[in-house]
Write a structure and sequence with these properties.
globular; Rossmann fold; transferase; PTS_EIIB-like_sf; 4-stranded parallel sheet; single chain; alpha/beta
Length: 99
């Protein structure tokens, strides 16, 4: 059985692109039947939201500690290789929820 996972979605301001990414992640979670909570934040607030995060999705460049599972998901914004990106997101979400 998969566990509940905590997801952080971050962009430069925590508003525009993180909202788009959040909606895309919610859709994937629903399709894959994965139970999760999502926190949206700016990169300035990211460090304070990492403690309980199981995985972080970024729409901007940001250096995270090696101990954090994360993925850059700018393709969801740009539309370039979007389907491939969704497949990678699915795989990562299953890895985290099944661990």
């Amino acid at each position: 059985m998969s566990k509940h996972i905590n997801i952080v979605v971050s962009c430069g301001t925590g508003m525009a692109t993180s909202t788009i990414v959040e909606q895309e992640i919610k859709q994937i979670l629903k399709e894959e039947n994965i139970n999760a909570s999502i926190i949206k934040c700016s990169t300035m607030a990211l460090d304070s939201n990492l403690e309980n995060a199981d995985v972080v999705f970024l729409s901007t460049n940001y250096k995270l500690p090696d101990t954090v599972k994360w993925m850059s998901v700018f393709s969801l914004i740009s539309g370039i290789n979007e389907d491939e990106e969704r497949d990678k997101i699915r795989k990562l979400l299953h890895e985290v929820s099944d661990s």
